[in-house]
Amino acid sequence: MAITKKPTTDAQAFHSVRSNLQREVGEFLAYVAKQKVPLHIYWAFLRMLFPVAESLGDLAYRADSSTNLLKILREEYASVNPSYGKLAALLIYIYRHSLTHTDALREIEFEDKKISWALTPNWLTAGHLDLTGTSNRYKRVDGRTIETGEPYVIRITFSVKQFYEDTLAVCNRMYNTSRKFNGDVGRRYDEWRILPLERKIKNTKIEKEAIGEINDLMKL
Predict the structure, then answer these.
(1) pLDDT tens per residue across span 41-50
(2) Could you please report the per-residue DSSP string of 124-187?
(3) This prediction's pTM
(4) Which of 12, 182, 186, 203 has the fewest CB neighbours in a 10 Å radius?
C-alpha cells in the first residue's frame, strides 16, 4: 500500500533548503570561524556549498547537474552579484567539479593563459569573485628581454563566507518568487526524499543490486 503524505509546496521546498543550509553549513561555519584553522579547511565548505547551489538549480530547472548549476549561477546568483553570471562555467570547473569529482582544486590552461583559484583567508568576504592577474612570460637577462614560456595567470578570488551568504540570499529570492513554479518545485522536492524502486524489464545495474539487497534483507 502506498504511503500518502501531504505534498510539499514550492515555498516550503525553498524554505527547507534554506533552513538545512543554515543549520548544517551555517553553524559549522560559525564554529570553525572561531578556531585557528589552515587555509585548506575552506575546501570542505566548497564541497558542501556547491551541491546546495546545484540542488537549487535542480529544483528550478530539472536538467543535468552541470546545466542546473550553470543556470542557477547565471540567473539567480547573478542577481546577487553580476560576476557569477560572467564566471559561472569557470567557477564550476575550478571550484565545483574539482572538489566534487577529484581531490584537489583545479587550474585551467587555455592557450598562453592559466585560470587559477585564490581562496580568501580568515573568513573574509571582501574581494569575492575579484580577478587578479600576473605575468612571468618575460624577464630581463643580461640587459635583454627573453620569453620564459610561463603563462599569464588570472586568479578568481573566492570567499567561502560570501558564497554561503549569497546562497542564503538566493534561497530567499526563490522563496519570495515561488509562485511562478506552479507546484513543480514542491513535487521535485518530494521526489528527492522517496525513490519508488520497482522491477522493470530494463533495470539499471544499481537498481538490480538494490532490489537484490532488499530481497536479501527480507530473508534475515
Answers:
(1) 888 899 999 9
(2) --TTTT-EEEEE-SEEEETTEEEE--PPEEEEEEE-HHHHHHHHHHHHHHHHHTGGGGTTHHHH
(3) 0.86
(4) 182
